[in-house]
């Protein structure tokens, strides 16, 4: 069973997932990165450009999903270096540090809360996050064109692209596409008709929405939403 709650880290989400049995799971692109705990290991999930199919690794999972753009400062690694990847945290940080942090999380009664404490401690050392990154996300998530977003932030197109690669793992056009997909799926899951969903989220038409869902999620829209 999957359960999530808002984290004390602004914009982040803490979650747990205890599979009821073997099987695959489909994780869709959302512009985010996660710090993961599974079977006594700490891992990092990088930003996805397409659906990640989990083959059902054993044991329970816990994670902290960072708000888009937060994780690279925490990890000290640009997001594009982890695009479409799942890696052990020990590949990015000193193994000795990772062993110490892993022991802390393993000792916590609630693994998700243990992860959250690790992240909050690191965040306190880093200070305030770059406010421009949240403004980029907010603008693109509101459907603002990439060019207009760059102008409003006082950035050139190349500057915006470079900052987006480092913070989100891909350029602003891809980030906008991923965020639009998530907005559309939220409406469709709430029962909004597909044609209306497409119109409200900036797709040219329902066919455009269907193509984007198939390309990013790897399944037809109806199948993804359980045959709706």
Account of the 3D structure:
The structure is a single chain. It contains 10 helices and 8 strands. It is of the alpha+beta class and about 230 residues long. It folds into 2 domains: about 1-125, no CATH class; about 130-225, Arc Repressor Mutant, subunit A, CATH 1.10.10.60. The strands form 2 sheets. A 6-stranded antiparallel β-sheet has the order 1-2-7-4-5-8. Helix 2 (about 95-105) crosses helix 3 (about 110-125), helix 4 packs antiparallel against helix 5 (about 145-155) and helix 7 runs antiparallel to helix 8 (about 195-200).
Question: For the largest beta sheet, what order do the strands appear in spatially?
Answer: 1-2-7-4-5-8
- Runs in which pLDDT lies below 50 for 5 or more consecutive residues are none
Distance N terminus to C terminus? 22 Å
Shape label: globular
Specify the number of helices: 10
Biggest beta sheet summary: 6 strands, antiparallel
The count of strands amounts to: 8
One letter per element, helices H and strands E, the order comes to EEEEEEEHEHHHHHHHHH
Q: How confident overall, as mean pLDDT? A: 94
